[in-house]
Each structure stands twice: as C-alpha cells, then as structure tokens.
What we know:
The chain is mainly α. The chain is 62% helix and 0% strand. α1 (26-56) packs across α2 (64-82). The longest helix is centred in the middle third of the chain and has 31 residues, at 26-56. The protein is flat. The model has no long low-confidence stretch (mean pLDDT 79).
Amino acid sequence: RNAGLGRPGNKPGMRKGKFIVKPKNPDKLKTFKFHQSLTKTIHKELIDKVAARAIQGQEKLEVQDIRGKGKELVKAIKRDKLTRKKSRAEEKLIEFREANKDK
C-alpha cells in the first residue's frame, strides 16, 4: 500500500511549510542563526546584482525597491568603468602620503 509521494506504508508524504527546524541546543542554535543571517546577506547581494544586470540589459522590473537598488549598483559599475586607472607610480605616491599623514 502506498501513502503518496512514493513512500510505502502509512508514512505521510512531504508536508508544506518550513523544512528547516531550528536546533534546541544553544550552541548549535547560535551557529544556525549565524549561517541563516549569512545566507540572507548573500541572497540580498545576489538580488542586487541580478537587478543591475537586468537594468543594463534594458529589461523592465516591476518591484520598485529592487529596481532602485539595481540602478544604484549600475551607477557604481559605470563610475568604476569611467575612472582612469592609476599608474603604479601614482599608487606608490598615494601610499607614501597616507603613511606620512599618520606621523
């Protein structure tokens, strides 16, 4: 006898909802929350990059906040491309000045 989703016996199939259960051990919970926050920041950055690429490809985005973040990133990318690359001598001079500022 099948219980659905290819599972034999009286076992229930997959349920809808959250599949990640928070651990009860305080130490494991702390690392779990750290990994969860890290994952959230990575996803936010990915969304911004995807929005920027979509705007650069002249596609329309319906969600206003994502479109705004994408436009900001596009401006930053354009600004970086337009700035002139400094020569090695200029970089050394800047490093020398910063080192002497502290003294």
